[in-house]
Every structure is written in C-alpha cells, then in structure tokens.
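Mods, move this if it's the wrong board.
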Amino acid sequence: MKFAKYLTVVAMGGLLLSSCSKGKQPTSRDPGNYSSATGIEYGEDEKSFAVNDYADIQGGPGLIFIEGGRTVLGSMEEDVAMTRDNIERTVTVASFYMDETEVANIHWLEYLHYLKQDSLPEVYTAALPDTTVWSQQLSFNDPYVTYYLRYPGFRFFPVVGVSWLQANDYCVWRTAKVNENLAGQASGGGKRGLFGRRGGNESAESTKPSIESGYVLPNYRLPTEAEWEYAAQAMIGTQYSEDENQNNRRLYPWDGHQVRNPYGRKEMGKFLANFKRGRGDYAGIAGALNDGAMITDYIYSYPPNDFGLYNMAGNVNEWVQDVYRPLSYEDVEDLNPFRRDGYLDEAENYDSSVGFHSLINDEVRVYKGGSWKDVAYWLSPGTRRFMAQDSSTATIGFRCAMINAGSNR
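Not the wrong board. Structure tokens:
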C-alpha cells in the first residue's frame, strides 16, 4: 500500500514537473499545459479553464511603434503669448503606437462610406467634415470648399474641418472595424487564422474574440498631449550610444535650430515642414517654392522624424486627448501625464459662463504641431493651443494612437 501511494505521488510530481517544461518558466506566449498555481490542466474538458494560443500583436494598420522613456516636456521657445502654460518638466511616457501619418481624406471617405451603409442617416450627417472652414469672406478659397475632401487628387492630404468630437468618434469606429476585420481573418475557413485562432463551424458570436483571447487590438484613440509631444521630439535620434546620455534637446522634430535641411547636396536648403514663412508668404516664389504647398500637403511629404512619423511639425495642427488647463504641467502626474477633466483646476475658476472673461472650460481641447497657416514658432513640439471640442478649422487634423498592450515598457 505504501509503495502504491509512493508511485502515485511520484507520478503526480512528474506530471507537475512536465507542465513546467523541464524547469522552463511559463510566459504569456507559452504558459504550459498545466496551471502553475493549481496543477490543473488547461482546457482538459469543457469545464476547465482554457488558455488560447497567443502571439503578441504588433500594433494595428498604419501604426508605428514609439519606444517610451524619460524626457523633458515643455516649451523651449520664448513664450510669445506669455501664457506660461508649458513649463519644462521631466516625465516618463510608456511605449505606445502612433499613426505614421495624419488621417487623410481617403481614410475619412472610407469612414463615411461604411457609416452610410451601417448607421442611421443622422450619424452619417454628424460625421461630415465642415468643408466651409475653407471659406473666407475676403479670400477666393471657394474651390477648396467643393473639392478638397472629395477630389481624387486630394486623397492623401490630411482631413480638416473635423472637430475633436468627430475625431474621437472616428477612433471608436476604426477600432471596431479593424477588430471586425481581424476577427474574420482569425476564424475563417477552418484554418489557423492570422493570429493562430483555430477556425471551424462556430457561430459568428462564438468566434468573436474576447480580450482574453489576445486577438483583439486595443482601442484606437487620440494620443495624449504627453505622448504626442514625446513622439514629435523623437529624442531617440540624439542618443548615439547605449548609455542614457542625450547630446541635446530638440527645438523641432529634427536636429538644429533651423527650419531648412542643412545636409546633402540635393536636399540642402529645402524646408523640413509645411508652414507659413512670413506675412503673406505660404510657399515662396514660382520656380523656387520653399515648401511647395500653399495649403496642406501630401501626408508623406517632408522627411519623417527619427521615430518614422511624418509631419509632426507643420501641414496641419493635430488634436490630442487632453482638456486644456494652463497649469497642467504642474498638476498632472510625472508618469504618463494626462488631463481628462478639470480635476484640481475647476472650470468655475475661469469665469467662462458669466461674462466670458475666459475661454477655458472642460470642453476645450489641446491641439499641437503647427500648420500650413502658422509661422515657425508653432512647429516646436512644446507649444500648445486650445479650441472648443465641437469646433473645427482648415488648419487642424489628427492622427490616432494605441497603447502597447501586454508590456511594462
């Protein structure tokens, strides 16, 4: 009897040891066949806890990985508006993903196409950009009102006339559409799908991936102001060794204190962003245009920064998530700083509802980056402005971001 019990104990011990793959520590990708907490086999029967196959999803369509780290946020320029609303401070920003380019007209037209198919007419109507943002009483911009959004030649120009609220709605739709597409690939044809999910004869509802499955991308969203500024700085390009020393801060998303390219025989002297050089000068003179664009430009124009992101200065300003407050730099946390509302700095302090002595409330959002209509001052990542979240202009667009799920970086 004792010998039989001994064999049973040895067998169970061997079983548990085998679950650890001969001393190999379990990971998210390879958790083993047995729970390291209970010893119960994963997915042994329909009542057992099931652990699906999992492989890290490398972001979503259009996204670039931004490795996080420590940085100094804040304006390096003279505070010409005297707002004192972005004093330098050291923070840490976690790794995330960001769109390589600004969201373009063709992307918005795709959005409108599916809304028209799948949504109520009022939802489609609410998503239409305000094309009249081009209209000026004393300027002949009428062709842009009619053609900028829909004419094929402008397909890959940044969408404008979009409010913060509309941009946020687009992020929600894009999340659903991308995950719907990935779910279809992951469960089709009885074959192993894009992310290793085993297909079969399951119903549509049963094959809809859950968060636990690992086949669902996190939400597309607007970047936080800290994420946007960090990505625009692209300080990774100033670090030339494996230590933590960086040789300089960056006034713009590129090296140097000038807005022209100082390198190369062919590229030297060319502007590095689409902006307004001075009063009345949007592009230079015929035959030698300095930036080649009177208004917005192709979303892949100008060299990308060291993260591989295009037009983080100029072309269009970009909405970010944050509610505007002038003292955010001293109120928010130093890890992943973000202001979602008026916490610690209530809107009532600004007298925006009585007398309108201030424009600040919980419905104004930050935008950054400078545009085709802005002078070079606003190209610096540390500068910031704000506007009502339901307003739009011909100078503001946006790009999306996404968390780096399943990572502590």
